[in-house]
Amino acid sequence: MKTAFKVGVIRRNKQIKQADLAAKVGISREHLSAVENNRETPSFSLLEKIATVLGVNVTELLDDQSTKLPQL
Prior knowledge:
Layout: H1 3-13, H2 18-25, H3 29-36, H4 44-54, H5 58-62
Helix pairs in contact: 2-3, 2-4
């Protein structure tokens, strides 16, 4: 599963709005949307911030072989 797709899936599973996640990591909602839709590649530091807010390890976002997603 691609990193960008994982960010969106995890965010939605945790019922966090794009605007809220974007604000917490210090980017615009449009930038987050571009990351989630694989139109922009996030920096590692941004992935770390996103992972922290989502409550996951950054390696879970980067590992293409991982299919483990948090359940509600």
